[in-house]
Amino acid sequence: MMIDGVGNKGVGQIGLQRGQVSRSQSASNDRSGQGIVAAPGNLLADLAAGPPVNAEKIAALKAAIAEGRYPVDPDKIAERMIALDLPLQAAQ
């Protein structure tokens, strides 16, 4: 089963685009003299905190799985995987 195609998917182009964005942002900041810059400390703290977690729901799911009460529907899982992948394929 092939998940990703064979060959280069244009990784170099992504790096090029990121570089262009960085240069254009720095150029606009240099011109204005008062560029808005996010505080890296706040961003790092937000990322370190991670996404919100519902511990009660996680505990209930773990218990249901351990007791064999959690229904697994392979068709539903496959449909969701395909639905999530289709926008990515359309963007390429």
UniProtKB/TrEMBL annotation:
Signal peptide: none
Composition bias, Polar residues: 19-32
Transcription regulation keyword on record: yes
A Pfam family the protein falls into: FlgM
Region described as Disordered: spans on this chain: 1-35
InterPro entries: Anti-sigma-28_factor_FlgM_sf (IPR035890), FlgM (IPR007412), FlgM_C (IPR031316)
BP-aspect Gene Ontology terms: bacterial-type flagellum organization; negative regulation of DNA-templated transcription
Keyword Transcription regulation recorded: yes
Domain Anti-sigma-28 factor FlgM C-terminal: 45-82
Keywords: Bacterial flagellum biogenesis, Cell projection, Cilium, Flagellum, Repressor, Transcription, Transcription regulation
The protein's role, per its UniProt record: Responsible for the coupling of flagellin expression to flagellar assembly by preventing expression of the flagellin genes when a component of the middle class of proteins is defective. It negatively regulates flagellar genes by inhibiting the activity of FliA by directly binding to FliA.
Family (UniProt): Belongs to the FlgM family.
Name assigned to this protein: Negative regulator of flagellin synthesis
Biological source species: Allosphingosinicella flava
